[in-house]
Design goal:
signal; Cadherin domain-containing protein; 4 helices; Immunoglobulin-like; 38-stranded mixed beta sheet; 73 strands; mainly beta; 4-stranded mixed beta sheet; 4 domains; Cadherin-like_dom
């Protein structure tokens, strides 16, 4: 039952030997001092316990620790010390000064701690409680645990005057199931004044809360007062506290539909740090509801936002999913928390989230600041709102779909810059600018609307405006509905001085409104713009050439037409000539060119005229598509005479799975969306897997995608040539690499889990077989980064891995899972590492390139076989604290690969490159201008 296994590595700093402690739940023989609470509490507090936990230990639990059994329940009520009223009751209390402890189970479900439900006479009774103090509790990991029916599953709290901002640095809470007890209202339990909480974490850097399932009962019957529950919540502290925080891949599930009367107040994830300027990422999470939920009647907020971006960091909410909540994403309420003013901070990036059946999608209040992009999709009720911008708040909306609600975008006293949005099919209005009361002579902040779709809505008003606005390219030519009403401003306002400007496409339409709806003499002055907006620059698009195999099926990808716009206007693509028989189709929004009618392809060459419009002006280019015989016929180009080397850059969460591929000379070869509609990010690698001497592009879906999805795109044509799921049922995202693992001369595909157990697999593209499967870091729950290279000089590449979180551990394995190498790349750093491998000095042995994970400036080291023991050579430090993501690729004409370094979240998507032979800087790659969500390189 109690088995303590000592490991062989001694910690010189703390003078103890880390241990693995196995604790199995009792099934009989319970007493007041020997029960399923006592054996756990003693392990963390009693030095006389045979299971006493020291810094660095790993505790493995198994069985059902039932704290409702009378002896355990009585012991739990008294707490660690067995005494009443000493402050440690109803929890396992973890005192400060105990660092780097892992509490885990062999698998999710193999260890359960069962609570009794909410107790009326105590507040926040729970499983694990950290009160905080003068010492730290850094480096803790909780994984694979099932905690049922507690007020508080895991609670970390702190004393600002004690251990300070780093008290809980390096915390990892991953792959747990927590069912929160139904909260008793204060009417039923006056002593129970706090909300129930699944996970409450506290201040520290480099923390990861990932892939947990939090179950909230909700309520069916209601109560005389609203009870409240929060799935995941953080402590409030000072700026910079939560640098490197990642809340990703979690599922918050409400089990019962809310009562119509007095429903339970529920918050899914409340990042409450007020840590303005830290790099914080909340991505790939789900907030799900039971069938029959009424979003108009419940009191649910899926996400509550407090921390904002600042000079030193970016706060990002990307790729999250919400169903059935009253509010999807909400800034802190000025009603509940009066006085909060976020206006002096940088914007929160809200990218690519999907919010369905919500009453309000995004609620920006308390003078919050936001940038909405990456294709947010919001649908809701006929009386609801997609985006609500409240008084003093500021939002920039680059794109998105806000449809099927009452009002798509509601500017209710705030300020908006709208550069593109789909506002179709809203019951009340696509865009509404509320009438407000303003003092005599003052102006409402101007609103700019660019590239909006015709909102329709059965002829209802798209928006009402108080003036001072610029409606640029507002409506399609020939629009016939009354879309804009120009209303007088509120009482006391000076409307006569307000000018409204409309672009040429709106001219005839606005005249209709003026003639029929607005008295210009009393409403203000309406001026019309020149036919083209001043200062507009036409889109830039060059002639492009693609190859396509004869006999390609419908839907086959030909390539992507690449264009850009200096004014950042949305672009629309169309084929205007040369498309004989309708052979091809082009996606109007992305430029993706695909086969539409296979019978029309033939065997020759198409010269397509492609038009690109920014809504004001158009540009054209010739796109040549050459058909070739891929079976070896006369016009089969065959393998390239010399190898063709490519590099790839993939956008992290919030950019719709965007991938760009570059030739060796730095020119753009392909630009496509690997997982179109998925916003959890895309990881990339390049290598020749099909044997045609042209490197192919391998991509892995990030957190939130099902099954560890991997795709392969042909480097010669850009066509999709393989798609498979590497880890059935896994949703934590995967990292990918290419290397010749089996020694057959072709690249194989290496896949590692992005979170959870550090599981690595290798697949042969040639025969679609599994070559290797092993756990890289036993007991780790933070995921694994992967690479491949011939480290030992034999005929096959080794699989190189790095710990994705925690200590900077690097290993190399043979395909059979035998360890070739193991070392720490950055001593004392606990944010994980990224890895690459390749022969940089042409000696026949691969060097290892290692970059830091998030939490510090991105550092890059190169390790030769002879320098592993001496710490390697630091070759670069990049700004920002999102880490350094590394890869190798051929960027010049010499005989060795070069080094690519991409930033993590928080920095502009600038990929830095270095000569592999001497580590001097080469030209940088500006992959995704203005995108701050981080990139992966390959």
């Amino acid at each position: 039952m109690r088995n303590r296994v000592r490991l062989t590595t001694e910690s010189l700093e703390n003078r103890f030997t880390p241990a693995t402690i196995q604790i199995t739940a009792l099934t009989s023989g319970f007493t007041a001092t020997n029960n399923n609470y006592r054996i756990l509490a003693d392990a963390f507090t009693d030095p006389a316990s045979p299971n006493f936990v020291s810094p660095g230990d790993t505790v493995i639990l198994s069985g059902n620790f039932d704290w409702t059994e009378p002896n355990a329940a009585a012991a739990w009520a008294l707490g660690n010390d067995g005494l009443a009223d000493t402050g440690d009751e109803y929890a396992i209390t973890i005192n400060d000064g105990l660092d780097n402890v892992t509490v885990t189970a062999a698998s999710l479900g193999s260890a359960v701690i069962q609570g009794p439900g909410d107790l009326p006479d105590f507040d926040l009774e729970g499983a694990f409680y950290f009160p905080g103090g003068a010492g730290t509790n850094t480096g803790w990991t909780f994984s694979n645990l099932t905690l049922l029916d507690f007020d508080l599953g895991i609670g970390m709290y702190g004393d600002p005057s004690g251990a300070g901002a780093g008290a809980y640095s390096g915390t990892t809470i991953t792959n747990n199931r927590i069912r929160i007890a139904t909260d008793l209202s204060t009417a039923a339990a006056p002593a129970d004044v706090s909300q129930n909480i699944g996970i409450n974490f506290s201040f520290g850097t480099g923390q990861t809360i990932s892939n947990n399932l939090i179950e909230i009962p909700g309520d069916v019957a209601g109560s005389t007062a609203n009870s409240s529950t929060v799935g995941i919540q953080s402590e409030t502290f000072f700026p910079g506290t939560y640098e490197g925080l990642r809340i990703t891949g979690n599922t918050i599930r409400v089990l019962n539909a809310a009562a119509v009367a007095n429903p339970q107040r529920i918050v899914g994830i409340w990042e409450n740090g007020h840590s303005h300027g830290s790099n914080i990422t909340v991505s790939g999470n789900q907030f799900l509801n039971a069938a029959g939920v009424n979003p108009a009647a419940n009191l649910q907020q899926a996400f509550v936002i407090t921390s904002h971006s600042g000079p030193d960091g970016v706060v990002t909410y990307a790729g999250n999913t919400v169903t059935g909540a009253n509010v999807g994403l909400a800034w802190l309420s000025p009603v509940e928390f009066p006085g909060y003013d976020f206006s002096s901070n940088g914007p929160v990036l809200v990218l690519g989230n999907t919010l369905t059946n919500v009453q309000t999608g995004i609620l920006i209040q308390s003078k919050g600041v936001a940038q909405l992009g990456g294709g947010n999709v919001i649908t809701g009720t006929a009386t609801g709102t997609g985006v609500s911008i409240q008084a003093g708040s500021v939002a920039t909306i680059f794109n998105g779909s806000f449809t099927g609600t009452g009002v798509g975008i509601d500017v209710n006293g705030g300020t908006a810059l709208i550069q593109g949005a789909d506002l179709n099919n809203n019951a009340i209005a696509g865009l509404r600018v509320q009438t407000v009361t303003i003092p005599q002579g003052e102006e409402i902040p101007p609103l700019v609307f660019v590239g909006l779709a015709d909102a329709g809505g059965g002829g209802t008003a798209l928006g009402t405006s108080t003036g001072g606005n610029n409606f640029a390219n507002y409506l399609p030519t020939g629009a016939a509905r009354a879309i804009i009403n120009l209303n007088a401003a509120g009482a006391g306002a000076n409307t006569s001085a307000r000018n409204n400007t409309f672009a040429s496409d709106s001219l005839a339409f606005i005249e209709q409104v003026v003639d029929h709806s607005v008295d210009v003499a009393t409403r203000g002055t309406v001026d019309f713009s020149s036919p083209a907006a001043a200062g507009n620059v036409a889109p830039a698009v060059a002639n492009q050439t693609f190859e396509l195999p004869i006999g390609s099926p419908a839907g086959a990808l030909v390539g992507q037409v690449v264009a850009s716009d200096a004014n950042s206007n949305p672009l629309a693509y169309s084929i205007t000539d040369g498309n004989t028989g309708g052979a091809f189709a082009i996606d109007a929004a992305t430029g993706r060119l695909t086969v539409a009618v296979p019978a029309a392809l033939g065997t020759g060459t198409f010269n397509l005229t492609v038009q690109v419009s920014d809504g004001l002006t158009v540009s054209t280019a010739t796109v040549t598509v050459t058909l070739f015989d891929s079976t070896g016929g006369a016009n089969d180009p065959g393998p390239a005479a010399t190898p063709v080397y490519l590099t790839a850059v993939g956008a992290d969460a919030g950019a719709n799975g965007h991938v760009k591929v570059y030739n060796q000379d730095g020119s753009l070869r392909f630009s496509f969306f690997a997982f179109d509609g998925f916003n959890g990010g895309v990881r990339v690698a390049t290598g020749d897997v099909n044997g045609d001497q042209v490197e192919d592009i391998v991509v892995g879906a990030g957190a939130g995608a099902a099954g560890g999805h991997v795709k392969v795109f042909d480097g010669a044509t850009g066509a999709l040539i393989s798609s498979f799921f590497s880890f059935s049922g896994f949703t934590g995202g995967v990292n990918v690499a290419v290397g010749d693992v089996d020694g057959d001369g072709r690249g194989d595909i290496v896949v590692g889990t992005g979170s959870g157990a550090a599981h690595v697999k290798a697949f042969s593209f040639a025969n679609n077989t599994l070559l290797s499967s092993f756990i890289a870091f036993d007991g780790s729950t933070g995921g694994v980064t992967v690479a491949a290279g011939n480290y030992d000089g034999t005929g096959a590449d080794e699989i190189v891995v790095g710990s994705a979180t925690g200590p900077a551990h690097v290993k190399a394995f043979t395909r059979t899972g035998s360890t070739v190498l193991s070392f720490i790349a950055f001593s004392g750093f606990n944010g994980g590492v990224n890895v690459a491998a390749g022969d940089l000095n042409a000696d026949g042995f691969a060097e290892l390139v290692v970059g830091t994970g998030p939490g510090v400036n991105g550092q890059v080291k190169v390790f030769q076989r002879t320098t592993v023991a001496t710490g390697g050579a630091t070759i670069a430090t990049i700004p920002g604290t999102g880490g350094a993501r590394v890869a190798l690729g051929r960027l010049n004409s010499d005989a060795v690969p070069d080094i690519l370094v991409g930033p993590g979240p928080g920095s502009n998507a600038l990929v830095r490159t270095f000569d592999g032979s001497n580590f001097t800087a080469l030209s940088a790659i500006a992959a995704f201008d203005g995108f701050l969500g981080g990139v992966f390189v390959g």
